[in-house]
């Protein structure tokens, strides 16, 4: 042992501050005598040694090692032996995570570049702290802790910063201040202990406030193809939503979009109360998944401290794709359209971490973008996401091409908690507006061909009369916020004569 600085031996500095206890601790000399006896007893119990493995195979994305006896999810460090004859001795160690095992071989996925690794490299599990016994408590041997997982920065020092999946700043504004490390793995909240969704949340987007009212603590999916304005819509919600903290996870997107989203869409005002976690498309799959978990963990940290958080994750599909790469690489069989079963198991594990906390604590209202390949709403990930989220907002390419922004397809979108957070008059007005919009869209071809004759269908007449006002209600400039109360007033005025 190198010293006793880390031991919690609870030895008072004087007789006056001694705590009540057995007679053997009544004097300072007696306490020291008992301390020496305890140390002699502890010296007879060996300290468990850390195992050390060896890299034996690198196949694509997967590293295989022998001699590593650690649980799945543990973090390891891979480094070349530091011998004078080794030309690779100057290489930086590579961090990796255990993602599976077979027999005596452990499968690891790197979170860094693996350039320069060769057979025989040492695999060192993350060191665990020694937990020392305490004076006056039942004797037990020295033992090691149990947390080998990843620990990343948390705290108020992240506000206004842009970090990567490891918590390293990307904005070149110096190191993080007033942060502390916390484990990434958290115990899930009991479903019966969660606070129910009962309060509306003002998103600043008129179409959502009026027709798809969001509740505080709700989890929604933003379903869209490419180039239909989902990033602009996320930026509007980041700037205008009534939340204490905004956490943005840019997972698997183009690296160019990271800076553009922050400067052009999020803006200085939005960044001041935001934390941005960026894991671009060229990052290893494990890093992309870690970015999603890190963004969620940051949101959980603020929620547990009583704050209301808005979590924007772009995108849930890229997260599933990263899990698919990992699962296929370690030999899991593909299932639906190449996605292994573990992909569909990982999605609810991530999504269920958001939502309301315990009564009296904060909340996480989450928006997850879901990319629909070829605008196919029956894509496996899109279909699975609809089943685990509390609603979905569908962006239409047809509306985007017509210059209708935000391009929200109201007929195909739904908020499953609107009936719990909106008054009955608002719900009825939104239902009536939806009926008129559906009636008009159904007869759109007849109207464009000139076959529509007023007076034959009074419902259609009302839909045609209200359609310009409905369009104005559902369209909005990205720089003009709309409050929840103003959105409801405008909705009521649109349908008052219908």
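^ Assign residues to that structure.
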């Amino acid at each position: 042992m190198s010293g006793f600085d880390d031991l919690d031996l609870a030895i008072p500095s004087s007789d006056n501050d001694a705590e009540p206890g057995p007679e053997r601790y009544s004097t300072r000399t007696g306490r020291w005598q008992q301390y020496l006896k305890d140390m002699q007893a502890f010296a007879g119990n060996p300290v468990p040694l850390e195992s050390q493995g060896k890299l034996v195979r690198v196949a694509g994305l997967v590293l295989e090692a022998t001699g590593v006896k650690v649980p799945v999810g543990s973090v390891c460090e891979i480094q070349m032996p530091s011998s004078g004859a080794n030309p690779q001795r100057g290489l930086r160690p590579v961090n990796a995570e255990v993602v599976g095992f077979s027999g005596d071989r452990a499968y690891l996925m790197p979170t860094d570049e693996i350039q320069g690794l060769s057979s025989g490299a040492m695999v060192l599990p993350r060191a665990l702290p020694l937990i020392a016994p305490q004076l006056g408590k039942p004797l037990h041997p020295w033992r090691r802790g149990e947390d080998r997982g990843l620990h990343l920065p948390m705290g108020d020092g992240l506000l206004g910063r842009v970090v990567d999946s490891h918590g390293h700043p990307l904005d070149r504004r110096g190191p993080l201040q007033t942060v502390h490390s916390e484990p990434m793995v958290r115990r899930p909240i009991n479903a019966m202990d969660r606070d129910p969704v009962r309060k509306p949340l003002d998103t600043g987007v008129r179409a959502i406030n009026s027709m798809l009212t969001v509740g505080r603590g709700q989890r929604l999916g933003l379903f869209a193809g490419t180039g239909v304005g989902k990033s602009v819509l996320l930026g509007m919600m980041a700037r205008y939503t009534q939340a204490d903290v905004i956490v943005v996870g840019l997972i698997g997107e183009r690296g160019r979009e990271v800076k553009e989203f922050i400067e052009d869409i999020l803006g200085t005002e939005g960044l001041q109360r935001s934390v941005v976690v960026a894991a671009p498309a060229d990052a290893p799959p494990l890093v992309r998944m870690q970015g999603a978990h890190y963004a969620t963990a940051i949101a959980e940290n603020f929620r547990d401290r009583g704050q209301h958080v808005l979590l924007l994750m772009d995108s849930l599909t890229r997260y599933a794709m990263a899990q698919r790469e990992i699962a296929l690489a370690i030999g899991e069989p593909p299932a639906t359209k190449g996605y292994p079963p573990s992909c569909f198991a990982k999605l609810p594990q991530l999504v269920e971490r958001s939502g309301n906390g315990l009564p009296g604590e904060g909340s996480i209202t989450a928006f997850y973008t879901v990319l629909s390949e070829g605008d196919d709403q029956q894509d496996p990930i899109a279909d699975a996401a609809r089943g685990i989220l509390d609603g979905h907002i569908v962006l239409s390419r047809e509306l985007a091409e017509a210059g209708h922004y935000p391009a929200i397809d109201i007929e195909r979108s739904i908020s499953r908690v609107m009936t719990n957070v909106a008054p009955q008059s608002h719900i009825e007005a939104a239902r009536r507006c939806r009926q008129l919009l559906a009636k008009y869209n159904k007869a759109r071809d007849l109207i464009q061909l000139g076959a529509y004759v007023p007076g034959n269908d009074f419902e259609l007449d009302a839909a045609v009369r209200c359609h310009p006002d409905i369009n104005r209600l559902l369209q909005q400039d990205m720089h003009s916020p709309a409050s929840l109360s103003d959105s409801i007033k405008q909705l009521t005025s649109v349908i008052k004569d219908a």
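The chain has 14 helices and 21 strands.
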